Amino acid sequence: MLLGGIVKTSTLDYPSLLSAVIFTRGCNFHCPFCHNIDLVRLPRNQSDTREPKETREARKTKDTKDKREKRVQKAHAQIELDPKEPDHGPWPQVEEALAFLAKRRGLLDGVVVSGGEPTIQPDLPDFLAAIKALGYPIKLDTNGSNPEVIENLWHLGLVDYLAVDLKCLPQNYSYFTNDPFISSKISQTIDLVLSSGRNAEFRTTCLAPFIDRDIISDLARLAAGPIPLFLQRYRPERVLNPSFMAPYPQPSQTDLEAFRLLASRYLSCYLR
Description:
Blueprint: E1 3-14, E2 17-24, H1 53-56, H2 65-78, H3 94-103, E3 110-114, H4 124-133, E4 138-142, H5 147-155, E5 161-165, H6 182-196, E6 200-206, H7 213-222, E7 229-233, H8 242-245, H9 253-263, E8 269-271
Parallel strand pairs: 2-3, 3-4, 4-5, 5-6, 6-7, 7-8
Antiparallel strand pairs: 1-2
Helix pairs in contact: 5-6, 7-9
């Protein structure tokens, strides 16, 4: 596991529970508005761009695969992390994190594993199992790019609460990654969560050009069901790509309330 930090106490990250937050390091997305920029960088061979299981055999595209890949790569290049960005450290080790959690038994109610993107790390199940062995319920924050990993973690009983970011409509995720199968993966994750009967939430950071009134309506319609959607305000300080974000103003409180009302036609929606 590549860990990126530990918040020892949080009253905000795990609903109704006093929790510690453990951040993993590395992400397969490069969202220009990301404020956890020290956690994004990852060796290239750890980024998973496999075609999702449900489409490996079914995918037959006449549609301009080459054109699509070029478009995706162009969009990704616009927001790529500056390769000169320094690698910060030292980073906490797994043993350190588990020892801390062992000492806090009886004081903390739960543990949040966030990122970065935790589901790209191959030893995530072992890490979550070690936390579970200490008696903690676990909340996992994810960008939703690995539905098969999420399903397996649920099957193993390693995640008690799941928070999935919905950044925009699935077909527009080329803003964040050059994975040519990402649209299908995000759609699969939404369907998985909606049909799971598990404790979960969707989260959307509201800012242009990724979210507007039409997009939030379409996104809420796509995620309609029993899982609530929380709308989050964009934090403009120290983001991954400030030059990309510079032309776009932060939504007003009026904008956020309008988004909430539009989304509430399809699901329970709250401002956070």
